[in-house]
Specification:
Layout lengths: L1 E4 L19 E5 L3 H7 L3 H22 L6 H26 L2 E5 L2 E6 L5 E6 L3 E8 L4 E8 L7 H4 L14 E6 L1 H15 L8 E4 L8 E6 L5
Antiparallel strand pairs: 1-5, 2-3, 3-4, 4-5, 6-7, 6-10, 7-8, 9-10
Helix pairs in contact: 1-3, 2-3
């Protein structure tokens, strides 16, 4: 894996340098910031939690006296609003500064808000891909790399598969038209690895309670 630092002057959108002869872009996309905020920064869950805490505080204060003071509740509400606003801005800026690119030879991930990085993931070093498609129209595509090509979790987050820490999986997070991207990626992978014996397996999991659908494409089992 190759990580390139800083790219204020991109030769091509999302790419630190012009593509070499014989390589071309198949797909480009970025995270949907609202979905990123809900799924990665948990804005929906936090809003519900903070709302419940505010109700509890209001209930407690109202029970103290008939003429209760709104100042503590207003202070808490202001802190909650600032926290949620900061996370929303972080989600928006993370999506704005991210660009995912699939070419006929690699996957390129330009990520980073304060400290920008570009990860080049050659298709020949990708072992498998995991798809997660949500009912809101966004998808996650996680890529399993060889052990020797491990990328640090902190370098990837939030562009990594949730709860996979020891061997982090670079993930195209909260993208639109994820099914289309998955098919493009699979076709490109098969062409790039046509000299390897490949067994393709598909398995679908039952629809979970949160109305998300999962599928796993094992792109490579090579002898």
């Amino acid at each position: 894996m190759i990580a390139t630092h800083e790219h204020e002057f991109e030769a091509q959108l999302g790419l630190p340098e012009k593509l070499p002869t014989g390589e071309h872009i198949l797909w480009q996309g970025a995270p949907h910031w609202k979905s990123l905020g809900a799924e990665v920064f948990h804005l929906r869950s936090l809003s519900i939690y903070f709302g419940f805490m505010l109700l509890l505080q209001a209930s407690y204060l109202s029970g103290q006296s008939a003429d209760w003071n709104l100042k503590p509740l207003m202070l808490t509400g202001t802190m909650v609003a600032l926290t949620l606003a900061a996370l929303s801005i972080w989600a928006w800026w993370s999506a704005k500064t991210t660009m995912y690119t699939v070419t006929n030879k690699r996957v390129v991930m330009r990520v980073g808000v304060v400290y920008s990085l570009t990860f080049n993931l050659p298709l020949k070093k990708i072992l498998s891909a995991h798809e997660l498609h949500r009912t809101n129209g966004t998808s996650d595509l996680s890529l399993t790399l060889r052990k020797e090509d491990r990328i640090g979790w902190l370098h990837l987050w939030p562009h990594s598969r949730p709860w996979v820490i020891n061997q982090p999986e670079p993930t195209l997070r909260c993208i639109k038209k994820g099914v289309e991207c998955a098919e493009i990626l699979k076709s490109a992978w098969l062409l790039a690895n046509k000299d390897i014996e490949v067994i393709t397996q598909k398995s679908s999991l039952e629809k979970p309670s949160n109305s998300e659908t999962h599928s796993i494409d094992s792109l490579l089992t090579a002898s």
